[in-house]
């Protein structure tokens, strides 16, 4: 068992953790039997944990393609996966993008989330302005 003192919002908590395997830990004081993954403890100064990767479904949600008058192809509308505020665009109209390229930054719950291109294409339109508040499902960028 390992003993830790954790301070959250100025309140200190003594925590005992039981080691189950190489990287599985369970709080010994909780009645829960569900293990959680954690990195093994290393002596030294505490560092901030790395951000967990976002699932692909939370990064961007393409809409159903609509007919494009310009080239007879289809236009994909990238929609907001969550409510938040558009911090900055990383693309301009006419720019070619590849699948996974960052289109814009969306701040939600004090965290900046990268909204990425769901497919290769060209930016046809920026549907919102920087610093605009958006809701889940609002159109952000059109790709052709």
Give the helix level as a range of percent: under 10%
Low-confidence stretches: 31-36, 55-71
Number of DSSP E strands: 14
**CATH topological fold name of the largest domain:** OB fold (Dihydrolipoamide Acetyltransferase, E2P)
Rounded to the nearest angstrom, the distance between the terminal CA atoms is 56 Å
Tags for this entry?
4-stranded antiparallel sheet; 6-stranded antiparallel sheet; 14 strands; mainly beta; OB fold (Dihydrolipoamide Acetyltransferase, E2P); 2 domains; 3% helix; 144 residues; 46% strand; elongated
Account of the 3D structure:
It is built from 1 helix and 14 strands, in the order ββββαββββββββββ. It has 144 residues and is mostly beta strands. It has 2 domains: 36 residues, no CATH class; 84 residues, Beta Barrel (OB fold (Dihydrolipoamide Acetyltransferase, E2P)). The strands form 3 sheets. Strands 5, 6, 7, 9, 12 and 14 form a 6-stranded antiparallel sheet that branches. The chain has a 4-stranded antiparallel sheet with strand order 1-2-3-4, with no helix packed on it. The protein is elongated and about 60 Å long.
């Amino acid at each position: 068992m390992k003993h830790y003192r954790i301070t959250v919002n100025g309140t200190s908590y003594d925590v005992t953790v039981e080691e189950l395997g190489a990287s599985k830990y369970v709080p010994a004081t909780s009645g829960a039997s569900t293990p959680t993954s954690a990195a093994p403890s290393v002596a030294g100064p505490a560092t901030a944990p790395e951000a967990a990767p976002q699932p692909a479904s939370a990064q961007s949600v393409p809409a159903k393609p609509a007919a494009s008058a310009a080239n007879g192809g289809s236009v994909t509308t990238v929609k907001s996966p969550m409510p938040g505020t558009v911090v900055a665009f990383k693309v301009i109209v006419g720019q070619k993008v590849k699948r996974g390229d960052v289109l814009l930054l969306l701040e939600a719950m004090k965290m900046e989330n990268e909204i990425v291109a769901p497919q290769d294409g060209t930016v046809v339109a920026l549907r919102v302005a920087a610093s605009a508040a958006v809701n889940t499902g609002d159109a952000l960028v059109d790709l052709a």
